[in-house]
Amino acid sequence: MPGLTAEQLQQFDRDGFLVIPNFFTAEDASGLRQVAARLLDDLDMATHPKTRFTTMDSDEHVGDDYFLSSGDKVRYFFEVDAFDDKGELVTDKTKAINKIGHALHELEPEFRKFSFRQGVKDIMHSLQYKDPRILQSMLIFKASARRRPPPPPAAQLLPQPKIGGTVPPHQDSTFLYTNPPSAVGFWFALEDCTLDNGCMWFLPGSHKTIPVWQRMVRKPTGSGTTFIHLQDPVPDPPESEYVCAPVSVGSLVLIHGAVYHKSGHNYSDKSRWIYTFHCIEGEDAGHTYDERNWLQPTKEMPLAKLYETEA
C-alpha cells in the first residue's frame, strides 16, 4: 500500500515525528545538491541585501520586506554571524547562507518535480488530509563551523564566526498557523545528518502535551514581525528529554506542526544540506490560513494544491 504503514502512522501519532529512510535516492539528492550549488554560485554579493535569518523569540526575528515578500520568490538569507562590524563577509558566500526560500517548489523545476512527487501525496492521503497545500519551501545550509587555521604567532587571534549555528526549540505551527492547526513539515536529508554536523533533536510526544502557545505574526504596521502569546508562555522543556535523530542521505523526516524540535551547531568539517517544505490543510477542508502569518499567498502564486498539481 502506498503512503505510511499502520506502524508508521502509530509512531508519528505517538512521537510527533517520523524518520523514513530511503524515501528518495542518492541520485535524487545529488541532483538537488547540484541545483543548490548553482543557486549559491549565482548569488551576486555586490547587489544582494544582507538580510540575516534568526528564529529567536524576540523582535530581532527577521522581518524586513525582502523576507516578508519572499513567499513567491527565491531569495537568500544569511547566517546571523555572517558579517563583521564593517558589513564584510567573514567567510565564503557559499558558507555564509543560512537558507534559500521560499518558493523553490514552484519556481525551480527540479524542486517542483521533487515536491509534488506521488510519494508526498501518498503520505498526506495517509494522514487523511483532504486539501493539502504546499508552502515555505527552503534549502537550509548548516555550513561547518570548524575553526579557521590558526594564525602566525605574531598575529592577533580574532573571534571565530558562528556559522552553521543552532536552531532553538520551536513548533512549526508558530510560524504557519491555521485554524485549527494543521502544519506538517517534510524535511529531506540531501546529505548525511549526524550528531556532529547538526542533526535534529525532538521532544517525543510534545505535540500532545504542549499546545501551540505563541505565534510569529506580521506587525499591525505592516512592517516587520513580532511574537504574540495565545496563552501563558510554556517553560523550556528539560534538555534531557530530547532525543537526537541522525539520518542518512535520502531520508525524509516528517514533523508534526506542534512537536518541539531543534538542531545544534555544525562543529564538523562536513556540511549539512537539507530541503524542506510544509503542508497545511486548505480552505476546502474547512481550515483557515491566518492573514497575520508572515507568509501570505499572492494573486500570482496562491498556495499550491498538492493533490491537483502535477510534478
TrEMBL record:
The keyword Metal-binding applies. SUPFAM superfamilies: Clavaminate synthase-like. InterPro entries: Phytyl_CoA_dOase-like. Its cofactor is Fe cation. Keywords: Iron, Metal-binding. It holds the Pfam family PhyH. Belongs to the PhyH family. This is Phytanoyl-CoA dioxygenase domain-containing protein 1. It comes from Polyrhizophydium stewartii.
